[in-house]
Amino acid sequence: MRIQVVDHPLVAHKLTVLRDETTDSPTFRSLADELVTLLAYEATRDVRVEDSDIVTPVAPTTGVKLASPRPLVVPILRAGLGMLDGMMRLLPTAEVGFLGMVRNEATLEASTYAERLPDDLSGRQCYVLDPMLATGGTLAAAIRFLVDRGANDITAVCLLAAPEGCTRLEKELEDLQVPVTVVTAAMDEKLNDKGYIVPGLGDAGDRLYGVA
Ligand code: URA
After folding, report:
1. Which of 54, 94, 144, 166 lies 20 to 30 A from 137 at CA?
2. Where, in this chain's numbering, is uracil bound (predicted)?
């Protein structure tokens, strides 16, 4: 597993405002959207392209276009939905699949309650959107779900990550022969006893959707 913490002053600035407890929901939503686009730029560095012959107004030339099959973007419901527009801004022709995962707040274990994904993901580059890589349980379950459908090239885009989650993810995915990359704006200090990232930004879903 490869973890890439995106080091850029605009990423750090937007993340700082997101973390601030006085930031309201509309501002949080629009900053999360901008931040995801910046992360998406890094996350798609290895997106597959193929040569494409075109003619400019001046001369014929060869460039590249996104290769087939199209990439698949998978927001994990609910909070991953708040990252979808930011990702699709850079990959407008990607297909979108949905995965609903819920974390049991007592056991901190994740389970799937909804899915709308293609049956066969072989050969697809998959981009999973999950704002908080906290315990790693949700992301590990989501990645396993995609691998079971044949995915073998997975990048997770997370606003924030915790070291405990990264360690668990690495361990849980050890047996899968699938390269997984995590792209995040920051690696925070730790988890608290409720499984929240410290210092973190609180409950990403609640802040995105204005739940008090
Ligand atoms: N989910 C969140 O929304 N925030 C955390 O800190 C951890 C999990």
Report:
1. 94
2. 197, 202-204
